[in-house]
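Go through this:
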Amino acid sequence: MKILIYSLKNGESGAGRIHLEGVLGNLHNMGHSIVYLEGKRYSPTPVKEIQIRGEQRRTVWEQIKEFMAATPLRGEALVLWFIFHEVRIFLSAVMTILRHRPDVIYRRHPLLNSDYLLARAFHIPSVREVNGIVADEIKISKRADNIMIRVINWIEKLTIPKADKVIAVTPRMKELLQSEYGVPSNRISMVQNGADTDSFTPMNPVMARETLGLAQDINYVGFVGSLTRWQGIEYLIQSLPLVIKQCPNARLLIVGDGRMRRELFELAEKTGSSNKIIFTGTVPYHEVPLYINAMDICVASFRKERNERCGLSPLKLSEYMACGKAIVGSRLSGLEVLEQQNAGILVEPENVPELAAAIISLLQNNELRMQMGNNGRRYVVKYHSWKSVAGRVAEVFSEVRRARTEEK
């Protein structure tokens, strides 16, 4: 099958880029032909080229977006940015479709959808993956005022149902797409995130720490991902003083970068814990398994806002489990797998004392940590490798292609 990926080749970064590489790499290995909008054929990207959410590697366009976000009319500027970006990729797509004649168009959810126009014009089925609601993300990051958020929400309600098939990454997202966005149930497939279970695998923590230059006599409580508001990292930082009272050797290891970097640095100073927190900043993706394996416990302390409404299928959760680590996570839709598989402990989101208590209980029980880590590893290998995720995505492509053929 020939698949057109409707985004610019380097248009994704961080978790989005990793997700695309995981799915596309396995689709490629399965024999599917993949082309980008600019007509280039897909070849798997070496993991060393992928970064974990790098504010330090901002492109010119990212700097322009940051400037627009600081203007009084930031919401209007943001919508103009979306329109400009959509025109760019639309023009690239027209020539690519004429040259390659794809069987299906695949796109991760944006605000606008010129792919719908091309799908109708060239009679090509389209599949859209929805991993988040743009209006919700803009609201929580305060990148627009309430009026523009309503406008953006209206645009999403108009565009999301246009795809022939929608892939939702969580059960809660599927419910939301049906109830608020008018997408019929039979046009929604649920495919959750995965992990590279070959690269993310348990390894000797002593060797991992030695390679990274980390102390061997410390209990590392870790986080990996983008430093954004919905991650709830501030609650993890606030919990550290409580943890240290019971576990004096505990330290936080925060791997990644993002918009909240400065705010989190300041919070660490206020709590008096800055000398007990390691912020690594941007790291190459191929080093992430080393960092996770250097940790004693991994944390996914997501906050309610945004996540409660849409549910969660975080990349970090699959990667933590793939490395055989016990996890402390927020009690939100999508993370219940931790309790179902006895792979971690769930706590109420934004509850600092409860978060600290769960971390302390795992730090003080090595046997339980190992048991939970082993349970999580088995589960992810069986159900959430990128190979299995790509297989389910390929089934969706086959469904829409078959349905379009039957229409003819």
